[in-house]
């Protein structure tokens, strides 16, 4: 199985880092293909917790080449600060490779992110404030700065000038703000050129040749299908293609080369930021999941909104990503509940709807229709096989599998790498 995509099957934070990290020792390349440091992977290795925002989880695996591909937006300050933090803990990051075509998040786009949110007022998105949206907007607007621009100071200055022409006039006119200095930004960007140079790689050529040679590649999706710019709950989404298709456009590896697409979903569901969320729980039930699941953002520290597993979302994720497998994480968080509700369909204006609605208003009005499953009280954190799980936990998983339209290949029962029940290995031994 040489090319595997791992994607979020909900609204993000499903534990994708753990899933791709588990494959790491058998993997030659781990490729981040979308998003930037709005992501947050927490990976636990030998009791040490690593919070990564920009670097792919593969950075922690010896012998694996971690790659930041063209679809990613890179904050250079964050890149080098994460590298330094890992190096200080004895982790070798020298294999990290970056595409010349990846876009850079210039400092002014962090300011623009805040400005955009302020302009939206009550309709704000609740972004991570990392400059992600403005940088993808610049990319589409053809005024973006790419990694390769760092190696031509005169072109770089012209590009910064072009981008700031619009942004400065907006900042000055609308917010009576100070204008951003072109030379300051250019010099700041240039100061990273020498350090990034050894990491450059023709990512598309290298990955395709690697597949020709029978190497194994894992594409690590940031965010999730419900935050995808096209298929998510627009406009309450991020600005990249988080779904499986993004692995192809974001790296230059074509769809026929992909062997397996793995969706990661929690045994319940969370979301951060604004936007519709039909199974959201308020009050005590939500707080119980938040506390038991430690549902606070890795990137922003924001408390995550929590709710019951939504099979409409899961079926949609299966469809949009053509999932071959689902990895369920955090089943242990549900231990102790007498019964567990699962949303099987939505009620919208009195009608039962089983497919994800296309209209934003319908999604805002959607009420969950629940089926209830018996819970369990036994500690499942040490279960090593599916048969070790209490009967009710097994039944819950089998029901999720049926409702989600995709086999469940592994089940997380705790935060450690080893606390995973594997039913079907994601990679052959
Ligand atoms: P942005 O990606 O910072 O532009 O934020 C847009 C939306 O995506 C906001 O609702 C964020 O909370 C959400 N978002 C971005 N990255 C993540 C993530 O890694 N996990 C969960 N939500 C995210």
Detailed description of the structure:
With 429 residues, this protein is an alpha/beta fold. Helices cover 32% and strands 20% of the residues. It is built from 13 helices and 19 strands. A 10-stranded mixed beta sheet has the order 9-7-5-2-10-1-11-14-18-19, sandwiched between helices. A hairpin with a 2-residue loop joins strand 3 (41-45) and strand 4. Inosinic acid (IMP) binds next to helix 4.
Care to give the gist of this entry?
The chain has 429 residues and is of the alpha/beta class. It has helices at 16-23, 76-88, 107-120, 132-140, 153-175, 182-190, 193-196, 203-212, 245-249, 283-292, 311-321, 360-365, 391-404, and strands at residues 3-8, 29-32, 41-45, 48-52, 65-68, 73-74, 97-99, 103-104, 200-201, 217-220, 260-266, 269-271, 305-307, 325-329, 339-348, 351-353, 367-374, 408-412, 420-422.
Topology summary:
Elements: E1 3-8, H1 16-23, E2 29-32, E3 41-45, E4 48-52, E5 65-68, E6 73-74, H2 76-88, E7 97-99, E8 103-104, H3 107-120, H4 132-140, H5 153-175, H6 182-190, H7 193-196, E9 200-201, H8 203-212, E10 217-220, H9 245-249, E11 260-266, E12 269-271, H10 283-292, E13 305-307, H11 311-321, E14 325-329, E15 339-348, E16 351-353, H12 360-365, E17 367-374, H13 391-404, E18 408-412, E19 420-422
Helix pairs in contact: 3-4, 5-6
The structure holds inosinic acid.
